[in-house]
Protein 1
Amino acid sequence: MNELDKPSELSEFPVIVSLPVLWGDQDSFGHVNNVVHIRWFESGRVAYMAQAGFPIVRPEAGGYGPILASITCHYRRQLSFPDTVLVGSRVTRFGRTSMTVEHAVYSQSLAALAADGQSIVVMFDYAAGKSIPVPAEVRAAIERLENKSY
Amino acid sequence: MNELDKPSELSEFPVIVSLPVLWGDQDSFGHVNNVVHIRWFESGRVAYMAQAGFPIVRPEAGGYGPILASITCHYRRQLSFPDTVLVGSRVTRFGRTSMTVEHAVYSQSLAALAADGQSIVVMFDYAAGKSIPVPAEVRAAIERLENKSY
Amino acid sequence: MNELDKPSELSEFPVIVSLPVLWGDQDSFGHVNNVVHIRWFESGRVAYMAQAGFPIVRPEAGGYGPILASITCHYRRQLSFPDTVLVGSRVTRFGRTSMTVEHAVYSQSLAALAADGQSIVVMFDYAAGKSIPVPAEVRAAIERLENKSY
Amino acid sequence: MNELDKPSELSEFPVIVSLPVLWGDQDSFGHVNNVVHIRWFESGRVAYMAQAGFPIVRPEAGGYGPILASITCHYRRQLSFPDTVLVGSRVTRFGRTSMTVEHAVYSQSLAALAADGQSIVVMFDYAAGKSIPVPAEVRAAIERLENKSY
């Protein structure tokens, strides 16, 4: 996304994906259902990893990859169709085997943040079936993307 | 659910719903996708409110109802098809306008908890478009269901 | 969508929506799951009706609206993330109380049609709870949009 | 499912799966959204293949498996939460490389068929990336399950 088009609410987020709200995303209360935000967060994480240089590969390919340990979402405003959301993602913290991804969902119709939250992602060795320390190459790539050191 | 069939991991949860894992719940990693747990939590909340005597009604009916303010899920074990999960719900805390619902997802195939988390639910006056103090009747009904005072 | 950007495979479709394939749209076979195409068709129908001047309203608003009587989808090519699909919609036929909507899904990654199909939509009087003849205003609006008479 | 509990509307279907309608299956019209039926059909197909002795395996395992060529669903009655549906599946026809699966969705709340339809499933050699004649072992297993010859 062009920096000029990025709303100030997302200025700290290096990776933004633009996603349409679908009519079918709404539940019987007439608003976007709470599971949809979690799907948006996922799309944001996947885009983040791809932009950092680590596209998501299927476990069959071997090697390591991120798996989700926990997720939190704060629902700030009710959304409805039609709308387009901008989903921002950034890494705010590294643990030994994990990293924290912050998410923000900006509604273009409301011109406001509609939700935010965070994911804890663990680096996982698919063949060994266990978590591993965050590889130095992943951390370095994220530091380049975020333009800072953790 | 018959108390005799309830796994000990769910013994503190007064409301349990049994839900099948669907083949289509799995994502390209071959495990149940993280959004599915959030849908399970929702099904648990809806069942809880119904069992307390407050079935979910659509906002058009007027009156008040619960809306979701935030959700957290901890993914403990990877699930896959086929399986059946038991989703436990209980209310652990009341705020002035909110209540905290704890969730636990038990996998029958794994005979273990697969996920847990919590929702913060706010009581909302649909006509007025704003949150309201938890009505005394709701609190009383939940105290009966939980067999305790908050 | 700008006519110049419209692929020739969609040249007969007056309404096109562009939708991103999400990572989570993929099932455990590693391809976009078959239910996702049905959601895309729905998004196409909703956009079509809006562009014809009949945005989808909730039944509570009274009046009439379209309900889905049947759907068919032919899966032509397997899709995967990342990709963007263009979903074309057009009305090809009117019955007394129904109309036939044709759908086509074009994959930008494959530069080819990935799926096509049709929906039969029935005009429904929400208050009366029964189907009604297609209102003359709906038919006229669609004839304008399609630039033809049926 | 016990034959005694099987509704007469499903008497011709050798494989039945029982699935709960979830609150979140409903869309903003307050009824079960049309994509949900397609997910139910999928769950029926998967159960059918498993009961015939061919559980769904991921393509990485090599060999062959069924892929969906087309699907049709007729929506007969509007469904809503709470309800439980019984989804019947049967194979009605073999082509050289394909078979036709018929689906029926019975609503326990309505005590009536709510939807029916069919899938065309093609046998696919994952390694070769092309369809293959329906293997004799698959056809024999289905003839045993259906208790007839095609």
Note: Chain B touches chain A at residues 28-30, 33-35, 38-39, 42, 58-59, 67-75, 78, 117 (CB under 8 Å).
Protein 2
Amino acid sequence: MYSEFGFIEKIRRRSVSRSAKIGIGDDCAVIAKDSKTDLVITADLLVEDIDFRLDWTTPELVGHKALAISLSDIAAMGAKPVWALLSIGVPEKIWNTDFPEKFYDGWFAIADKFNVELVGGDVSKTPDKIVIDSIVAGEVKKNKAVLRSGAKTGDLIFVTGELGGGAGGLKLLDRGVWKNPEQIKLWQMDLLNRQRQPFPQISIGTILSERNLASAMIDLSDGLSSDLAHLCAESKVGAKIEAHRIPIHKKLSEISPLKNEALELALNGGEDFELLFTVNPKKISRLKKVLTNYKITCIGEMTANAEMIELVSASGSSILQPAGFRHF
Amino acid sequence: MYSEFGFIEKIRRRSVSRSAKIGIGDDCAVIAKDSKTDLVITADLLVEDIDFRLDWTTPELVGHKALAISLSDIAAMGAKPVWALLSIGVPEKIWNTDFPEKFYDGWFAIADKFNVELVGGDVSKTPDKIVIDSIVAGEVKKNKAVLRSGAKTGDLIFVTGELGGGAGGLKLLDRGVWKNPEQIKLWQMDLLNRQRQPFPQISIGTILSERNLASAMIDLSDGLSSDLAHLCAESKVGAKIEAHRIPIHKKLSEISPLKNEALELALNGGEDFELLFTVNPKKISRLKKVLTNYKITCIGEMTANAEMIELVSASGSSILQPAGFRHF
């Protein structure tokens, strides 16, 4: 019996590397395209009642999110999305509703924003639940894809945007706010949008790769504690982050007045689809210049303590265990 | 409410073509790779209790078939498979068995035969049933991918191998032969193998594209009547095929002594994963020379009666309606 990540690691060791420059173990695989370009590609499986609930969202938002989470993986490589495949399985009772059409409406709305072309996929029947597999390919200049494995001791750790909002939105859905849509408050809608309609950070990702600014990058899908642990494992370094520097989503204070609870959501909640990246200290001034229009926050630095993450807070220092989302 | 193919057609019209040379509507999408090569890519969704049943097969054979059916799409473009993504969702109770490991055993066994590299994918939990999305990419010389749309009036129609075996195997499974495995006869095992362990026709496909021999091609997954109809629709021509020339799987006579029933399985049964291709009459002698070691059969010719398929048999001529597999 394996944990999800243990099993993936086993499959990874079994896969012989031939055409892929980077295979299993990063946000995307990296495959040589031509003399100037690499192709990056990712797949994300979404399952009804595991990854989404029909009464908690809309068909359009399921379509949006299916593509957005894959675009976030493309962003994490510093690549620009180009084309996509979409496989969808639905039960007969859903086929005979407007779900399929509205799902594709939502998918195409965000695809058009990012110039993503649907080139193929599959349509199938399922016995009971909806399943979606979202495959997206992107392009990046040769050898410029930003990997999880490039972080060095002393590199500073940055995150984009604010964290914990995705998990905060999930908490609201779990509490049943969707049952009375007319009573949803503005701050609640902010958090619900973070959960149901994530926005992939393609612009920041491509700037970082084009300007050679990031030594390593990952998208925050499982949760900061888990995703930083993935990056540390691939880079064979450790990290020290400071709790008070973590940009916690402002509306989380409305959910809970306890600061610790908001921090917990930011650390372990997952589904923020922001980027976490590391930068050589010498490049910081240039980084700030080119990202002046974007919210980025330095939360700590990489250390030589391989695969150990230290969390420094007012009450002292502790070891941060990966406690983000996992299926198994 | 749409039929499956009607819905896909609608999605296809909505998709703006940019990077893809061929998008939705063929066995694979075709995307320019470099100055000498095109990339072809396909996705196939397999759902437990729709596309396979655990008591009718083994985990290894599910892994084999998941990859084989996508390789068959690659073969239908005349391409050579290169890399793959594999997304798999399993319920917790299956995760805690040896299914995942044996499934990958079967997948890797055929992947190694065809030099396919696993570069990524996803692992997820499902509430109840196993789902698999198999994505395979192949390479073909620039502009040499064989499309569904190239058939011309007068081209001869060929199929590889024998037809109806996949459907014959399914019939045996439906009759319950799997309940007494020690009593399965040799001829039954032949048909079961056709159903559970299909073999993709990569060699024939690549020979046809490299030698410029096929004007159009499709793999026989839904069934001859449906797949020939797809090819006719894309090529905007019709077809006339002769019943007595269709290479019916020999072991089907053991299932039913009625010739009509075997013909019905060969026409509409699906899942044979043989290739159907069309050839300009001038190229026939060259075709026979280069494919001398392979079983191919001419079953008829393309006609000017757009999208109409005529079936000629001893009892006369009739219009053949597409009656192969469809989900909706």
Note: Chain B has eleven helices and 13 strands.
